[in-house]
Amino acid sequence: MTLLTDPTTTTTHRGRRLRRTPALRAMVRETRLAPSMLVAPLFVRAGRGIREEIASMPGQHRLSVDELAGEATRLLDAGVRSVLLFGLPASKDADGSGAWAADGIVQQAIRELRRAAGDDLVVIVDVCLCEYTSHGHCGVLRGESIDNDATLPLLARTATSLAEAGADVVAPSAMMDGQVAAVREALPDEPILAYAAKHASAFYGPFREAADSAPAFGDRRTYQMDPANGREALVEVLADVDEGADMIMVKPALPALDIVAAARDITNVPIAAYQVSGEYAAICAAAERGWLDRRAAALESLTAIARAGAGIVVTYFALEAAGWLRDEAGG
User: Fold this and answer.
1) Structure-derived torsion over alpha carbons of residues 38, 277, 253, 63, reported in degrees to the nearest 10
2) Contacts of residue 220, Cβ cutoff 8 Å, sequence gap at least 6
3) N or C of the chain: less Cβ packing under 10 Å?
4) Is residue 142 included in any domain, yes or no?
5) What pLDDT, on the 0 to 100 scale, is given for residue 205?
6) Total structural domains in the chain?
7) Is residue 331 very low, low, confident or very high in pLDDT (cuts 50, 70, 90)?
8) Which domain holds residue 263?
9) C-alpha to C-alpha distance for 304 and 289, rounded to whole angstroms
10) What pLDDT shows up at residue 9?
11) How far, CA to CA in Å, does 134 sit from each of 58, 107, 215, 259?
12) How many helices (H) and strands (E) does the chain have?
């Protein structure tokens, strides 16, 4: 069909007919965000009465366990019903044994959130060793290389400990081959959210400061994915589904929207996408300088992630975004 350029001519297509008012635009909106699809990452550390702002992530904090009840209340009141926990242990060792300790920092956090929020809050737990190892890598080392197969039972042991503490969902993120199968064998009835397509991204920098998890040497490119590889990402997605994942994660989100969309096309399991620390920090920094509108940029980016096919969005904007969405809805 050829569209005519003469404004006096009636054409078949006039998209502006449905854009005249905010109410009309809202009625025909294709992609709708809701607070219930947002997941708030939380960083939990040892101590009491601690709410420590993260310099590279304005508005985000490291929290002691006793601060979690208040945070859960704020999130639930805003309509956010899911959190993703990361721990900063008091000490570390070569194997990351704090990850599976019965009294580990995340295990304590799970029990506190269960006490404070019951089943109203979905508690998702990251299953990795990088925050607990003295070298900062995601698995057991042999020399300066990761021993993939020696790491698998430790990830399964960690997931079991977290599930026993009361986690709703375990989320293996170490990018070890076979990690989902190892966790599924240990936990046949536990929901698994697999970090399936996790790229070795430049956008993780602020997180590594927040979680004190930067590798002491080298990088993670031998086990995290090359950001240039899209087809390989889909192989990883299908492998994790075959191994028993109930949901899959794409990380980071905005640089991998094509992967989110392609994963939506090839699988029927729920898809999550993680708007990571660098994505959050970039918007915050630009907004602080007056270069972007923080609210508009955040909501547009979250909408893009949902439009690509993610039904679950992990984002540091979760609490703020839920409030903005409620304002837009007139609630």
Assistant:
1) -30
2) 137, 138, 175, 200
3) N
4) yes
5) 86
6) 1
7) low
8) 36-329
9) 23
10) 56
11) 27, 20, 9, 33
12) 11, 12
| Count, residues in the chain | 331
pLDDT at 286: 98
- The string of pLDDT tens digits covering residues 122-179 is 999 999 998 889 887 888 888 888 899 999 999 999 999 999 999 999 999 999 999 9
List of E strands, the chain: 38-45, 51-53, 61-64, 82-88, 122-127, 141-142, 145-146, 169-172, 193-198, 247-251, 271-275, 312-315
Which residues are annotated as catalytic?
198, 251
Q: Would you say residue 17 lies in a domain? A: no
- Average pLDDT for residues 35-56, to the nearest whole number? 95
What is the domain-level CATH number for residue 184? Answer: 3.20.20.70
* CA 313/CA 331 separation, integer angstroms: 22
Q: Could you tell me if residue 112 is inside a domain?
A: yes
Burial 10-22 (b: 16+ CB within 10 A, else e): eeeeeeeeeeeee
Q: What is the 3-state secondary structure (H, E, C) of 219-248?
A: CCCCCCECCCCCHHHHHHHHHHHHHCCCEE
25, burial (CB in 10 Å: exposed 0-12, middle 13-18, buried 19+): exposed
Cβ–Cβ < 8 Å for 107, 161: yes
Residues 6+ apart with CB under 8 A from 121: 72, 75, 76, 81, 82, 83, 113
Average confidence (pLDDT) over 43-67: 95
The C-alpha atoms of residue 201 and residue 255 are separated, in whole angstroms, by: 9
Output DSSP code: residue 93: B
Taking all residues of the chain, what is their mean pLDDT, rounded to a whole number? 92
196 found inside a domain? yes
Measured CA distances, 189 to 85, 99, 115, 245, 286 (Å)? 20, 21, 22, 11, 44
Cβ of 288: how many Cβ atoms within 10 Å?
Answer: 11
Binning the chain into helix, strand and coil, the percentages to the nearest 5 are: 45, 20, 35
The encoded tokens of residue 283 equal 């918007």
